[in-house]
Each structure stands twice: as C-alpha cells, then as structure tokens.
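Morning - nicotinamide-adenine-dinucleotide inputs below, output right after.
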Amino acid sequence: MKRLQGRVALVTGGLRGIGGATVDRLLDEGAVVIIADLKPASDEVVQATLQRLGQASSYVQLNVTSEADWQSAAETVRRDFGRLDILVGNAGIDGVGSVDTMPYETWKRVMAVNIDGLFLGTKYFAPLMTETGAKTRGGASIINISSIMGMVGWVDASPYNASKGAARLFTKATALEFARKGIPIRVNSVHPGFIRTPLLQEGMDRAAEDPSVGATAQDMLATLDQGTPIGRIGEASEIAAGIAFLASDDASFMTGSELVIDGGWTAQ
Ligand SMILES: NC(=O)c1ccc[n+]([C@@H]2O[C@H](COP(=O)([O-])OP(=O)(O)OC[C@H]3O[C@@H](n4cnc5c(N)ncnc54)[C@H](O)[C@@H]3O)[C@@H](O)[C@H]2O)c1
C-alpha cells in the first residue's frame, strides 16, 4: 500500500513551484489532493492541471489572506471529503528592498500572505484535522513552508526574513499547543534553501533590471549555485520529498521540528 493511501491533503499555492511539486508527490504517494490557489476554478491553467493530474486531484480558489476564503474552504472540504489529514501551508511571496525606502504596504502584504495565511489555515482546519488525526497512527499533519531565511538574515529582505522567522515559531507554538492538549495534529516547518521555481526566477529577473546590480539573472543564479555547498540550487521535487515524509506516519514522532533542505547553505 502506498504511504498516503486514504489520506486527504490540501496544498496552498499548489499551482506551481514547490506547491506544484508537492501536489505531484502527494498524489504519487496515494493521497487525494486539493490544490488551493488564487486563480478561479474556471481558469484554463487550473483546468489543464486537473486534467493532467487526474481524478484524485481537485481545486479550491483560496486567497490565504482572506478569512472568508478559509472558512468556506473548510466547509467545502468537510462536505466533500469528510476529512483532512495533511495541510501544507506553502503559499508565499517575497518582498525585497531596504527598510528605509520600503513602502509599509509591501511589509503588510508579505506578512499577510506568509504568516497570516498560516494562522488562518491552522485556525479554520484544526477542528476537522483533530477529528481526522484521531483515525490514523501518526495523526494529522500540518507542514508550514518557512525558508532558510526564517533562520538566518539576508540583505534587503526584512519582511521576508521576519515572516519566515514567524512561520518557524508559529509552527513550534501550535505544535506544543496541540501536543500538550492531546490534539492529534503534528506541526512541523520546512526550510528550503534556494530552489529553482518561478518565484526565484522572477526575483532574479527583477533584480537584474536594476542597473546598480550589474549582473544578469543567469549570473545571479550561478552565484547561488556556487554559494550552495552541494554546488547547485535545489529542485522543487527535493522539497516535496521532505514534505511527503512529514505528512506520513514515518514522521509520527515529529512535531515542532524544522526540516532544513538547503544543500548545506546554513551549515556554513
Ligand atoms: N523558491 C525558493 O527558493 C524558496 C526558498 C525558500 C522558501 N520558499 C517558500 O516556498 C513557498 C513556495 O515558493 P515557490 O518558490 O514555489 O513560489 P512560486 O511563486 O513559484 O509559487 C507560489 C504559489 O503560491 C500562490 N500564491 C501566492 N500568493 C497566494 C495567496 N495569497 N493565496 C493563495 N496562493 C497564493 C501563487 O499563485 C503560486 O501558485 C513560499 O512560501 C516560499 O517563500 C521558496
């Protein structure tokens, strides 16, 4: 039997990048997977994705910053699936620039997506996941995608650093809260290093437009390859593999932990 057979998962930001690779991996491991992302369900990208992934996949339009969207997603999942074993809080955005010139709006937007989104998802899915978690050996599993930038600082990335650091400790706080109260939900964070995704590429493309940077996006990606001890940036599937492990009963004794998958970056 596959490791996640019979389990139901929801992945925020599941249409591309790390979220997309996670959807693929959880499906491969036998789960039913609900993709939650910004596009309307009728969008052609959504339709093509569902067609490619087949019957075990479905879609819910959800902006992680919207309390109403989370409430309605929790009702839909309860009605249509009757359980939720795995919640992957993956949707995230970056926000770069120096503190003194950064618009307050940028700070608030990054915080809203990267940390409010985790709070709201945990809050509205905890009741269903508590019921579901009691049915399996390892319990239900929330996996919050932080970053190595939730562990160490980076120049000109203060809102991103702050939001990812908050994700790391929100994970530990909720892990303890659930464990100490006997609630069968494990909560762990994943800390990717630099991973080849549209987010990273778009960030490099934007930076390259600034003449003071004096480097192309390709140059900057090569610098990240060289800066990573293993000699290359990571692939989204390598993060998805860690997420699938935390989602499974193989990680039944793990809660409040941080899984760093960074090619050695933070070991330096
Ligand atoms: N790529 C990296 O190098 C890297 C490194 C460390 C951590 N991360 C984290 O991994 C996660 C995924 O990053 P990625 O590189 O795959 O990004 P990506 O931009 O390629 O994909 C992000 C997905 O999230 C969705 N999304 C954005 N805002 C949303 C919102 N408000 N509500 C719902 N969905 C929303 C997007 O539509 C998109 O499908 C993020 O939390 C990111 O911070 C990425």
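Note: The radius of gyration is 18 Å.

O.
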